Amino acid sequence: YRCDDFVVNDTKLGLVQKVREHLQNLENSAFTSDRHRKRKLLENSSLNSKLLKVNGSTTALCATGLRNLGNTCFMNAILQSLSNIQQFCCYFKELPAVELRNGKTAGRRTYHTRSQGDNNVSLVEEFRKTLCALWQGSQTAFSPESLFYVVWKIMPNFRGYQQQDAHEFMRYLLDHLHLELQGGFNGVSRSVILQENSSLSASSKCCINGASTVVTAIFGGILQNEVNCLICGTESRKFDPFLDLSLDIPSQFRNKRAKNQENGPMCTLRDCLRSFTDLEELDETELYMCHKCKKKQKSTKKFWIQKLPKVLCLHLKRFHWTAYLRNKVDTYVEFPLRGLDMKCYLLEPENSGPESCLYDLAAVVVHHGSGVGSGHYTAYAAHEGRWFHFNDSTVTLTDEETVVKAKAYILFYVERQAKSGSDKL
């Protein structure tokens, strides 16, 4: 209990839960008496440390950090990034709360999801509560232990305290939120809640694994995959939904580490997007089964974006396998803060409006270190016109110059709604 380790399985008599509840009762009584003292300390010290000078006036830093529960920076960086995607975050914060415990323990400061059955575990609810805690400004750091416990329960890959891949966690998180949102919520269908949100119209939905949810409505796009047989010329097309795009860093840039290095041209996000969408001849291990030739043949492949999402998530493939281990590509990739133009990658660009293909950066996840199983994750995110650096429990105000120097791992771009400049990639 003191080191906050998790005991997932209890005894038949529930002895672990009895010990936990006894210790929790002691903590609750101490919490009540300490509340006023902590509030005074917050007002006198913590709050003063969170005052910033912005444009000559003093303002409060309302951002809240996330405590590291043991190599959980991969989770914290993703949560902070998603919390700064306004449309996505607001949807969850406006959902009605679910009380997973009732009776005399309801409303008390308890680890309410611990030692509960799988039926009483709600990823959506813990995700909602975490997002609500991040921008209320009442504390400098929030402990996402209840959310982490639910992650352990429903995502066995992330059990334990070893370092995990932030992109893999993001995909699992979005997929499980999507699946849970397709079920009922307090007797109300989640799809009904989605339909009542006027800003998420039916035309914006992209179905993945069933009905549309806020996850697919915001992050969902559609790729067209074209494969051409080089022997008979037969063309095959199929449409694939996506929540993010994983981009290779072109091999010619992989030795260029820093932004100010002079050896050769700078790798840009456009180079990575071009490498993803350019015509490619498949190698011998990827021979295409041609229905006309009735056998596997050499072929070419090309991706087009058939539908762009409201939030474009771009994952740079920084980790690759060699003979014995997984290495990191530490190349700096230049990316724009504003005006990422995706029109040239669209299947039918002529059907798009003048500004419907422009995206502005909302958040960046950065991996510091050499390997996927080690190192550290932090995130930069924009909130109400200011950039913040989220490093677990520490949140600092930063500037655009610092953000653009980051070696991005995951980039979150939000579709531009109104004209705001003409900077383009």
UniProtKB/TrEMBL annotation:
GO terms for biological process: protein deubiquitination; proteolysis. It comes from the Eukaryota. It is an enzyme of class 3 (hydrolase). It holds the Pfam family UCH. InterPro entries: Papain-like_cys_pep_sf (IPR038765), Peptidase_C19_UCH (IPR001394), Ub_carboxyl-term_hydrolase (IPR050185), USP (IPR028889), USP_CS (IPR018200). Its EC number is 3.4.19.12. Keywords: Hydrolase, Protease, Thiol protease, Ubl conjugation pathway. It catalyses: Thiol-dependent hydrolysis of ester, thioester, amide, peptide and isopeptide bonds formed by the C-terminal Gly of ubiquitin (a 76-residue protein attached to proteins as an intracellular targeting signal). Residues 64-416 form the USP domain. GO terms for molecular function: cysteine-type deubiquitinase activity. One of its GO terms (cellular component) is nucleus. Belongs to the peptidase C19 family. This is Ubiquitin carboxyl-terminal hydrolase. It comes from Piaya cayana. The gene is Usp3.
